[in-house]
Amino acid sequence: MLTFHPTLPVVVVIVGALALALCAWQLAVARGRRLAWTRRALLVLLAIAMAFRPALPGGEVPTASVQARVFVLIDSSQSVAAEDWAGEPRLTGMRADVVAIARAFAGADISVITFDSQASLRVPLTDDGSAVIEMVRALRPEIAQQSRGTSIAAAHDLLRTELERSEAADPASPAIVLYLGDGEHTAEEEPQSFGDLAGLVDRGLVLGYGTEAGGRMRISSFDPAEQQRYVQDPAGGDAVSRIDEGRLRGIAEQLGVSYLHREPGLPIEDALAPMAALDAEAALDRTEEARLEIAWALGIPIALLLAWEGLSLARSLRTTRAILPKEARR
Predict the structure, then answer these.
(1) Is residue 3 part of a domain?
(2) Is this model's pTM higher than 0.70 or not?
């Protein structure tokens, strides 16, 4: 069943009603252009629907309140596509663990930073666990053609900025850092140390994904045909990505937190619960329904209608120019 969570509902309703009234008026008086105004009315309706943020039930998240600032760092480089998570990509395990993190730290302010050849703030600090779950479900590895080599410390500077900014705004809440990666460092320069951030971090975990045997990686690409192929080793054959636990343990030591190797079928809740319980204000067994927003899907028909509108406008301009006298065209 659809649910709605509108942004500025009064403004949306007023502006939407005025726009629809204009379309209805033009449909009544501009009889030769009814198709165009029907198209515009549909655009308005779709835009209103998008503004009301429709969503489907997306599982459950606890309603308990945890007073903490939680920073989740996720490796999104090509190597997380390595198929050594029980035959599935490592990213499958990462997604499941981030969902568990969002549930364990329900009520806390959670931020998500992804890193590959560069770091990106995907989710600013928010107490909306469903936003974190929705983001990680949509996460894909970096497009192979865009990769310029990955540093395991690519998120260092962005993490420092977010830690310092959030501490200034809320110094009473502890900072928890959860680093999810495989430790594979492909950048030319040595990775920056996280040691200077240890004083800003109260606790956390470094979570390692992958195996020593490694796994092949399907190509991350915009081209569906390319997505069925595997990354090739310059020396020949399929490239294989392997976990580097030495580097992951090094990051954990620098941050002053523990390292945990993740494997399919091993629950992570036992590792998260003690950290969450230190700052919990209520039991973590009450849940509420999470929202899986689908407003993005409305962007597809909106884009098609806008393209149609643009083509129609271009044809009108060409027709107008053709019938104008030569002097008026200059």
Answers:
(1) no
(2) no
